[in-house]
Structures are given as C-alpha cells and as structure tokens.
Design a protein that fits this description.
Elements: H1 18-24, H2 27-37, H3 41-48, H4 56-68, H5 72-80, H6 93-110, H7 123-137, H8 142-165
C-alpha cells in the first residue's frame, strides 16, 4: 500500500517569553524591572547594559556577579529601598512586639533595615527564622554584618529576578515571592 504525500510539520509560532520582553525592552523599562529586584541604580544599569541574554540562567549569573560588586554606597542605596514585611493577620501580638524590639536593636546597631533570604523556609516558620536571624546577626561587628547583608541582598535579588522572568509575578508590588519576608523581600525595616 502506498501512502500519499505527508503534510509539512506544523510549527507553533514563537511566543515571546518574559526574557524576550526583558531583552527587547527600552533601557528605562528594563532598569525599572531590575530596580524592583534590587534597589541599586548601578547594579540595574550594569545588567540592563549587557542585554540580550540567551537564557534566564545567563541573566541570573550576570545579576549574581554584579551583586558581588556592590560598593558600600550601592549597598546603602539598596537597603534604603527595603521595607517592613506584612505579617499575617493571625500573627499574635507578642510576635509583633518581639519582632519590633529585635529590629529596633538591629537598626540601632547597624543603621539600616534587616534583610534575610528565606529560601525554602515554610511560611509557618518564617517569623521564627527572621527572629533567630536578627538575634544571631546582632552579635556581628559592623564589617561582618555588611558582608552578610550584601550576601542576603544578592540572594534576594536573584530570587526576585528569577520569579519575574519566569512569569511568577511582580518582584516588589505584588504578593511576596516564596522565601521573602515582604513584598520587597526584606525582613522588618523602617
């Protein structure tokens, strides 16, 4: 039995991805997206200036590398953009008091908001993890804490950017990304 001619393979049209949109965006739009992930103008310009990226992993690697190069001024600028978390409505008042007191002690010692990357910490354990982190890091000297804070911001920026470019939602104005403690991913701040 002879078969007739086969039809050409059907190809789906290429649908733009969030990475495609990021690569093609005007500089100001790309910069704005990046500033939602880490509030450093120099960091965002550096990453936006190296577009296009072939894949999300390459972009994340570039963002990670750029975050290692934050100057003390860049770090201060980034920390100024972090904010207090929204605690769940059912959080008991003693937890609010403990968190407020711990953060006040932290900010008095270091002069900036406390940030922490929570990664895969279950939401039910986030408050305890944040309190433990603040109390533990209060024992650091200012230089040690600057290094730890820069690392936490680097990890938060990578998480926020990955979620944004994988279509998971907004980095800073929507619900907190998994592992972050606020819409901006910061633990208690100002």
């Amino acid at each position: 039995m002879t078969r007739g001619p086969t039809l050409p393979a059907h190809r789906l049209p290429h649908l733009p991805t969030p990475l495609d949109a990021f690569n093609a965006a005007p500089d100001d739009e790309a910069g704005a997206l990046l500033l939602h992930c880490l509030h450093s103008v120099r960091w965002s310009r550096r990453i936006a200036g190296h577009r296009p990226y072939p894949d999300v992993e390459s972009l994340l690697a570039a963002a990670d590398e750029a975050a290692y190069d934050l100057s003390p001024g860049d770090l201060s600028e980034a920390l100024a953009g972090e904010c207090l978390p929204e605690l769940p409505e059912d959080t008991y008042s003693a937890a609010h008091t403990a968190l407020t007191a711990a953060h006040a002690a932290y900010e008095a010692k270091f002069g900036h908001v406390f940030v922490i990357y929570l990664g895969d910490t279950p939401p039910t354990e986030s408050l305890d993890h944040v309190l433990e982190g603040i109390r533990s890091r209060l024992t650091n000297d200012p230089e040690e804490e600057r290094i730890v804070t820069a690392e936490e911001l680097r990890r938060l920026a990578g998480q926020r950017l990955a979620e944004k470019l994988r279509g998971a939602g907004q980095c800073s104005s929507a619900a907190p990304p998994r592992g972050a403690t606020s819409p901006n991913g910061a633990a208690p701040g100002r």
